[in-house]
Design goal:
Mean pLDDT: 88
Radius of gyration: 22 Å
Largest sheet: 5 strands, mixed
Number of domains: 3
Order of helices and strands: HEHHEEEEEHEEEEHEHEEEHHHEHHHEH
Oligomer: single chain
CATH class of the largest domain: Alpha Beta
Strand order of the largest sheet: 6-5-4-7-11
CATH architecture of the largest domain: 2-Layer Sandwich
Helix content: 25-40%
CATH superfamily of the largest domain: ATPase, nucleotide binding domain
Length: about 375
């Protein structure tokens, strides 16, 4: 059974790939377990014969693995497959979604930290909010710990692990190298949480987490997507061919400080006219309030134009067909996204822009939380 109280030193953020073929002989039992769980997670109930056929593993191996997973409570039997078929009726098995819970946390909203308790299918069981009240540095870390304590108290099942999506640059060991909006520099957030609660903890950039949420729980026809996250800051998560792109310095998708207006306001980073000043929620809400109702659309057009300028070369270089814009619906929908779409069309070849589906994350406001859950599913069960 997964050891939920075992310390996992240096738990790294997810670098997932979807297992699709038979494990080679040198692969260990863990990979075979993950292969079985991947098929059950993405396909639903299957018989042991189905699993053997789809995975390429032998029936004996499948039988042993299913028995092992049943013993740990991760998989259970549903009974016989309905419908008349020749031979002995097959018994279906599936992942027991409620056998374990996952605590997932989103630290990207402007005014609060948000956490949920979800089951193994990503279905939210409980939700909790921790007001931020301008907290930074050590005070913000204390608020994270308070949120974790509340979530663990709410869970009615054994907690498999904790996943955290945070603004900023997060390295391969889960250390927050830079999160200026929270005043964090070289903060080993995962270790701080583990030290108090002694659970496996996985930390990733919030936009990367959102991209993982789309990839695992959404539908990506081509296996590639860019998720642009607009909240306290602005960042992009990239999944290409099913794999997360993090970059050599783990800063892939840090588009918030791309200069879009050289004569613009001075940014906290020292440059003028960064995208974050044009689009991030605090700055955009301030300008909308100052402009008033009559000029609201003009402010949103300017923001959409700036976003389109920043996204155009990325979309053109990677020939992306799906871009999801995630953030406050009252700001990013309508005028802003339409202007961004038009700007991209003006700045890219028709062969690129004609195939582009630029959409808001309607009904998917929990993308970061879903992705934080994927961090745990991948790290603990090999499911992504």
């Amino acid at each position: 059974m997964p050891q939920t109280h075992q310390r996992r030193e240096g738990s790294a953020p997810l670098r997932p790939r979807r297992l699709a073929t038979k494990s080679l002989p040198e692969h260990n039992r863990r990979n075979n377990r993950a292969l079985v769980l991947q098929h059950l997670f993405h396909t639903g109930p299957m018989s042991r014969a189905d699993l053997a056929r789809e995975s390429g593993l032998t029936r004996v191996t499948i039988g042993d693995l299913v028995a092992e997973l049943q013993g740990e409570g991760i998989v259970h039997e549903l009974g016989q497959r309905p419908g008349a078929r020749p031979g002995k009726p097959a018994t279906l098995v599936e992942i027991d979604a409620d056998a374990f819970h996952i605590a997932a946390i989103d630290l990207s909203p402007e005014d609060s930290f948000i956490g949920v308790v979800m089951n193994l299918r990503g279905e939210v069981q409980h939700r909790l909010e921790q007001p931020l009240a301008g907290a930074m540095g050590e005070t913000a870390i204390e608020k994270v710990l308070q949120l974790v304590a509340g979530l663990l108290h709410m869970s009615s099942s054994t907690v498999l692990g904790l996943g955290v999506g945070t603004p900023g640059i997060v390295d391969g060991a889960g250390v927050v190298r830079q999160a200026p909006n929270l005043g964090w520099y070289d903060v080993d957030l995962g270790e701080r949480i583990r030290r108090v609660f002694d659970y496996p903890v996985y930390v990733a950039n919030d936009a990367n987490a959102a991209a993982l949420g789309v990839r695992t729980f959404g539908s990506i026809p081509t296996g590639s997507v860019m998720v642009v996250r607009v909240e306290h800051g602005v960042g992009a998560g990239l999944v290409i061919g099913g794999g997360l792109i993090e970059g050599e310095q783990y800063a892939a998708g840090e588009i918030g400080h791309i200069v879009v207006d050289e004569n613009g306001e001075r940014c906290a980073c020292g440059r003028r006219g960064c995208l974050e000043l044009a689009v991030a929620t605090p700055h955009l809400r301030r300008r909308v309030a100052e402009a008033g109702a009559a000029q609201r659309d003009e402010v949103l057009k300017d923001a959409g134009h700036a976003l389109g300028i920043a996204m155009s070369p990325v979309i053109s270089m990677l020939n992306l067909n799906l871009v999801v814009l995630s953030g406050p619906a009252d700001l990013i929908g309508g005028t802003l996204i339409e202007t961004a779409r038009n700007t991209i069309r003006e700045r890219t070849m028709s062969a690129v822009s004609n195939g582009l589906d630029l959409r808001t994350a309607d009904g998917d406001e929990d993308l970061v939380l879903m992705g934080a859950g994927v961090l745990v599913l991948s790290g603990r069960l090999g499911v992504s």
